[in-house]
Amino acid sequence: MRTYLILGLTLGLGLLVHASHLSAQTFVFPEKGQSPEQQEQDDFTCYKWAKQQTGYDPEHPNLAAAPPPPSGGRAMRGAMGGAALGAMGGAIAGNAGKGAAIGAATSGGLGMMRQRRAEREYQMEVQQAGAQNQQTRATFERAHNVCMEAKGYKIG
Description:
Number of domains: 1
Order of helices and strands: HEHHHE
Radius of gyration: 27 Å
Low-confidence stretches: 7-23
Mean pLDDT: 76
Number of helices: 4
Number of strands: 2
Helix content: over 70%
Strand order of the largest sheet: 1-2
Strand content: under 5%
Oligomer: single chain
């Protein structure tokens, strides 16, 4: 189940980045009567310049990777460790079984809390990677547009 969640999040972020690019379509108008051939050449020149300035190539994006998911089983490991400690404490007090049960319940609950916190932190890191990728793409597009404007095109 966790694998499907991670796969879904990763795919969703990729679609979000792609969709944001599609919704922000740029229009270029040749204000100085440039021919379509000249516009294509200027666009290519500006593409290379923007790539050099930003270090980003939209055709070969160097995207920030999402971190690996947190490992599961914290609650179970916590419960087993707590049961062992509880059994030792209970044996000293005369009831190892009761001590083991109390230790398992307490440590298992703490393990579940740690697991939830790790999953929230993971979600936050995935969102940050997506935001960083969007920002990198936006910086490239801004550089490209500045170059095209300098060559006499209206960008809108």
